[in-house]
Amino acid sequence: MSTHDTGTAAAALPPPEHDDTNANGLPIDPRRWMSSLPDRALLSRISLPGTHDSIARYGYGSICQDQDLATQLANGIRVFDIRLRYLKGPDGRVNFAVHHSNYYQYAFFDSLYGGYGSDCKTFVLDDCLKFLAENKQETIVLLIKQEKDVQKALVFFDAFWNIVGNRDQYNGKPLDALVYAGRSVPRLGDVRGKILFVFVDGDEGKDDPEYKLNNPARGLYWGNIDYMVDALSPRPDQVTELDVENHYSDIMSAKWTKVSAHLQKTFESGPGATNQYVTFVSASRTPDVTHFPRSYADYLLPQLDAWLSTQLQVPRSKVPWGAHFGIVMMDFPTTSTIHLLIQASLSYQYV
């Protein structure tokens, strides 16, 4: 089944909160900052600002963001952590509610498949497609994970691809022009104007291979990234060329030590490296009220800004290719942090 835009997508995007400048000092609109990057740029070499638990704005101890998806997109965020709960409606069709643990986030994956109430505030797929229709040189990376009521992979994918396939001919474009059809890390020119789905596993069902989302029809599979993943010594069930820092319950000083060490490793990787580096600058020790996600963000983000600023000032004689920080996933990202990551991407020398 195919359909055109029904008008149920989010309202017009809000104006961006800040501007960035390119290497020539010219202003860059954060809604369109990727338009200044070359098509040859391998996505794993672009410094990409992202958000952890991107839709989580409700629930005691579960709030990780204070901006909705459309605002995050307008402000330059390009990687989103989306947690989906499988729900079957009275007509038998399946849609996905967005959750953080048990907390419903007043969001659904799609507006066309129904199953949501009048309290739904966000439709992930709608907002992303609308943004890309208006900003054709950008790309959006969606990390897709099951959260609550986890289904076997065949059941999950059957529902998921039905929903995605239903958007064929959205805005007059075939599905392959809307969603990346490959299954390997793309260059930017291959994903402009498209969503790149990256599937990750959670702990539920982790011991049963039938629950692993490791055979997507399109997009990438990263396995379980709820832990540290070392590209040099991956676990038996882990994909290769992926390097992740995700110690999400360490005390604050220990978390920053691991974050900065992982960012340093990313920074020191040469321009020919193929590993995808992902650093989660997010943590929580809920129900400890002094270690909620906001408390961690208030502690970690100022240090992150200082660290990024220092690395961006390293002379080109030492790092001729420029600064690279990989994907940086954050709670409550500040405009200054987004700005620094965009600056790194704009000044990097891509092979």
TrEMBL record:
EC assignment: 4.6.1.13
Protein name according to UniProt: 1-phosphatidylinositol phosphodiesterase
InterPro entries xref list: PI-PLC_domain, PLC-like_Pdiesterase_TIM-brl, PLipase_C_PInositol-sp_X_dom
Superkingdom in the source lineage: Bacteria
Catalytic activity: a 1,2-diacyl-sn-glycero-3-phospho-(1D-myo-inositol) = 1D-myo-inositol 1,2-cyclic phosphate + a 1,2-diacyl-sn-glycerol
Residue ranges annotated for the Phosphatidylinositol-specific phospholipase C X domain, each copy included: 39-200
EC category: lyase
UniProt cross-references to SMART domains, sorted A to Z: PLCXc (SM00148)
Region annotation (Disordered) ranges: 1-25
